[in-house]
Amino acid sequence: MQWLASAGVPVPTVHRAEGRDLVMDRVTGPTMLDDLQRRPWRLLHHTKTLAEVQRSINAVTAPDWTASTGAAGNVIVHGDLHPMNVMLGPDGPVVIDFTNAGRGTAAFDAAISYVLMSTFETTGAVDRVGQQLLVRAFHLARGRSLVDEGLAGACDYRLADPNVTDGERRRVERLRSPRSERAA
Question: According to a count of CB atoms within 10 Å of the terminal CB, is the N or C end of the chain lower?
Answer without folding.
Answer: C
